[in-house]
Amino acid sequence: MSYPLSKLPVVAQPAYVQGTLDTLLSADGSVDPAALSLRDTTFVVLDLETTGGAPDGGGITEIGAVKVRAGEELGVLGTLVNPGERIPPFITVLTGITEAMLAPAPPIEAVLPSLLEFLRGAVLVAHNAPYDVGFLKAACARHGHPWPQLRVLDTAALARRALTKDEVPNRKLGTLAQFFRAAVQPTHRALDDARATVDVLHGLIERLGSFKVHTLGDAIEFAKAVTPTQRRKRHLADGLPHGPGVYVFRAADERPLYVGTSVDIATRVRSYFTASEKRARMSEMIAAAVRVEAVECAHSLEAEVRELRLIAAHAPPYNRRSKYPERVVWLKLTAEAYPRLSVVRALADDDAAYLGPFSSRRTAELAAAGVYDAVPLRQCTHKLSVRTRTPACALAELGRCPAPCEHEITPEEYALRAALPFRTATYGDPEPLVEALLHRIEALAERQRYEEAAVIRSRLVALLRATVRMQRLGALTGIGELVAARRNDAYGWEIVVVRHGRLAAAATSPPRLHPRPTLDLARATAETVLTGPGPVPAASAEETERILAWLERPDTRLVETSGDWVSPARGAARFTTLLTRAEAAASRRDSSVRSSVTDRSDDARSLRL
């Protein structure tokens, strides 16, 4: 039965008071609604009466909504709704709403447009909000209305956090309305319950002040389930700067517990004291922390680098990554008549060829196995003599080693066939190694030995990843000084001075001013960097890679360099596509070994073409 909206039984309301612009701005405006004080926030307090079933797009029998701001009532919407189904007798007994009352009422699809317009620009408040929101979302979905993604505040959840059981025995609306001496007591009718919830909301907002909850965002987070420790330590986030930098959680003995970075230190640290932080290790860390120290930085790159250096210097117990940058290993081609590969922990200033750095010995050994599959390098650890023969091992009998121990190969031929391909791959073209491994993969795949082919593929990935990484690092660390800048609309120009792959200075020039004076000052005060051997002579590989990622952004401009930033034309970088596809195939758990290996065979053929 139709029922025109013009005849809806809407309660008389006072003149509507238009909100100021800043209270209506969305996240892309000048004011984030979550940052508004609770006094300046517009709330729509809503209550639904239903037939008692599950939310399925129907079942709503009555809607009551009251719009308030700063304690003042701005508008009211109240109407019965025809649910299109019978009302259970117990619902009639509970609410007093009969089928005769609902027969002339409009269906929910006729009411939704008016309700959604009433909710526009406001925060939805309800007691046990998930129940009411669930019915409204289902109704919108059934009748083709997009859900407006409203911010929702649940007075029941707020009461659970703000009130103790000594004050109220439970968090029912009737109990809370009586506790806060609401002007209207709930009657299981939508508008009466909504008005009662308004008084409960105002009473709770008064209580929130003692918890230092003053904004809408704080109230939403406060309503979520946080631990007592998080709530007690929330003050640690007070007074921190809103800007890029590093934050350090410290224990009572000033020992760093955890180091992190963010483009907004204050906002990030506050998140540790909200329901979004669910990591057990972080909960343990927060319990031990007594203060948070902030280190403001010029921009995000400086913050990332300072974070890495602080973690490396202090090894905070609650940081998992980047704690021990010195614990890297290298593959070294020894300098002897018949060279071999050795896993070493440090670079020496010698003429030996090195490949790395590797984060673990296991990864280095995997890459070494790939080299052994590609070229006839000896795998024994004996020191061989060009004059005295040594008995051969089983690898020589299997044809896996040219037996230099028995002088079956001359030092010159061994250097050409075995050592030179590896040495060249570290600074130039790794194609001989790559081609040999791809041939092995193809041969094994053709014989349907897919598991063995997958093992060779993993060795190829480890070897290629190391050569690509080392040549990228070496291209930057070989430059004595590089100055670059990136435009930041909020702060001006972000400026970096990089020396041998190490961040020597960082600055931000003010907006609307020429960046040259700031740049010159940064260069004049930049750190003096002493170089050393290898592709990472002055910083950790991770720091140089962070700088590389920043420099390679399309909006970064190179200002000055003391040398050429170049990579070999036939270097490892030309195999980046193959490496990416091989890594993706290896990580696909839903694909068979056979399909991923044959994918690599296709890559090999396309590279040769």
Automatic annotation (TrEMBL):
InterPro entries on file = DnaQ, GIY-YIG_endonuc, GIY-YIG_endonuc_sf, GIY-YIG_UvrC_Cho, Ribonucl_H, RNaseH-like_sf, RNaseH_sf, UvrABC_protein_C
Extract one GO BP annotation from the record.
Answer: DNA replication
Query: What CDD domains does this protein map onto?
Result: DEDDh, GIY-YIG_UvrC_Cho
**Keyword field:** Exonuclease, Hydrolase, Nuclease
**Region Disordered: start and end of each range?**
586-609
Return the Gene3D superfamilies for the record: GIY-YIG endonuclease, Ribonuclease H-like superfamily/Ribonuclease H
**What GO molecular function annotation could you give as one example from this UniProt entry?**
exonuclease activity
Name any one Pfam family assigned in the record: RNase_T
Q: Which GO CC annotations does the UniProt entry carry? A: excinuclease repair complex
Q: Does the keyword Disulfide bond apply?
A: no
Q: Where is each GIY-YIG domain found?
A: 242-320
User: Which PANTHER family does the record associate with it?
Assistant: UVRABC SYSTEM PROTEIN C, UVRC/OXIDOREDUCTASE
| NCBIfam families given in the database record | dnaq (TIGR00573), PRK07883.1-3 (NF005905), PRK07883.1-5 (NF005907)
Protein name in UniProt: DNA polymerase III subunit epsilon
What would be the name of the gene that encodes this protein? Answer: dnaQ
